Amino acid sequence: MTSFSTHVLDLVSGRPAAGVPVELWQLVSGAWRRCGGSRTDGDGRCTDLPAPDLARGHVVRLQFRTASALFPEVSVVLDVDPRQPRYHVPLLLSPYGYSVYRGS
Q1: CA Rg value for the chain
Q2: Are 76 and 89 in contact (CB under 8 A)?
Q3: Across 1-104, where does the E strand assignment appear?
Q4: CA angle, 80 as apex, 95 and 100 as ends, to 5°?
Q5: Residue 72 needs a FRET pair 20 to 30 A away by CA distance; which of 20, 62, 63, 79 works?
Q6: pLDDT tens-digit series, residues 25-78
């Protein structure tokens, strides 16, 4: 079973972004289905996202509700390899841009 986690960092303050809602969605038969969600903790981490059933589909979306004026939502779509046990996808956020990468 493949697990998912994330870490959101506020690049302006140089601090973790606490309380950011994060949802995990899965593409199943051409439609997005919500698997569940959580919020980042005081360290900006979200480690309790549900594990989707990858037998139903390999494409998932992490949806961050950032509440930013320019980017009120950030969606990251991943084509997941079910042989990988873990995906960690950090989000680096600023008022006028964002970046994501596959972490370790």
Answers
A1: 13
A2: yes
A3: 3-10, 15-16, 21-28, 31-39, 45-46, 59-64, 74-79, 86-88, 91-94, 97-100
A4: 15
A5: 79
A6: 999 999 999 999 999 999 999 999 999 999 999 999 999 999 877 899 999 999
The encoded tokens of residue 101 equal 């990468």
Domains and CATH numbers, the chain: 3-100 (2.60.40.180)
Per the DSSP assignment, residues forming a β-bridge with 5 are: 88
Structure tokens at 95: 């008022």
Sequence-separated (6 or more) residues with CB below 8 Å from residue 99 = 91, 92
Secondary structure (3-state) at 84: coil
In the prediction, which pLDDT does 69 show? Answer: 73
Q: What is the pLDDT of residue 104?
A: 87
Task: Determine the Cα–Cα distance for residues 15 and 17; give it in Å rounded to an integer.
Answer: 6
- Non-local (6+) Cβ contacts of 47 within 8 A are 5
Q: Which of 86, 38, 85 is CA-nearest to residue 62? A: 38
